[in-house]
Amino acid sequence: GKVLQCVSTSDTVTLINTTSTTYVTNGIDLDITPSATSSKILLLYQHNMYLAAGAGEHMGMTIYRDATDLAGDEGLILNQLNSDWIPVSMTYLDSPSSTSSLNYEIFFKTSGPTCYGGYADWRPASFVALEIGA
Description:
Elements: E1 3-11, E2 15-32, E3 40-51, E4 58-65, E5 68-69, E6 76-79, E7 84-94, E8 102-117, E9 125-132
Antiparallel strand pairs: 1-9, 2-8, 3-7, 3-8, 3-9, 4-5, 4-6, 4-8
């Protein structure tokens, strides 16, 4: 296959989330319209996250395509032993079988107490979608 198109976004949002057992959006999304139903979409996400340390604290991340949770329980799980900023990245290869506009969005959840993502202009989030032809 070859890369048919590239769509990307970068954001310097500061995300704050308290304990949540369900995934919530972090506000970073992008749209891409595949040129063929046989195309695959390679998703690349990078961000810095902060999770306050505590016994058994963890954060999970996933990617949604429209209303579909793509990674679910297979999503990225971080366990934190010390309060610190952690570089986070996720890669996912989607097979949407569609030529309609698709919205991809990053979601996360934490066991608590608080999770931060990004920090003003410091290390913004980067989200890229590559359409890969068959």
